[in-house]
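To close the section, here is one more complete example, presented without commentary so you can practise reading it yourself. The ligand is magnesium ion.
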Amino acid sequence: MENKLNKIALRKQIREAINGMSSELCAKECKNIWQQVASDPIFQRANTVLLYWSLNNEVDTHQFIEEWCKRKNILLPVVNGEYLQLKVFEGIAKMKKGAYGILEPQGEVWKDYDGIDLCIIPGVAFDKQGHRMGHGKGYYDRLLSIVLAAKYGICYSTQLVDEIPTDPWDEEMTKVIYPK
Ligand code: ADP
Ligand code: MG
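Output:
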């Protein structure tokens, strides 16, 4: 119960901190984050990468996905009730708004979880130990509990905190990439 309240307070604090970032700073931090991802050996070797289609207050993925989808298989989440299903990104033109107003690919559901080489995961906040906090619905905890691949959390500087309050079901990241 205590964790639940701590998480709620932290979510509010981080949301305000992100809103306080200028668009120039966001763009600068995004550039640095994607440079780190592109030079990462696991990313370089990966054929199939789980990404996410970013909303305004998340590390922007749109350009990166459009650039890399020519060379790699990019999977994106599709909200299905309490679960995230995965579908292959086949271009913006083929996406449709889903449950939370987020653009989602259409087409067949990707079920080969062992075929995923790397997951790049958004969050509200992370710490350097690899703990992650989301929006409070546990979507990524449920999804990542069945994915063996490396999990990289990515976040703006304002989303990195000393210590995330964690619960037993929280999935840990292999590493967290933040602007350096
Ligand atoms: P978030 O990770 O989005 O910050 P929480 O970690 O607070 O959210 O989890 C939200 C809810 O999701 C919790 O009440 C938890 O019971 C549920 N949940 C998390 N992971 C799982 C799981 N693997 N299976 C079933 N329910 C889960
Ligand atoms: Mg969680």
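Once you have examined the tokens, check your reading against these statements. The beta strands are 48-50, 73-80, 83-88, 95-97, 103-105, 118-121, 125-126, 132-133, 150-154, 175-177. The longest helix spans residues 2-19.
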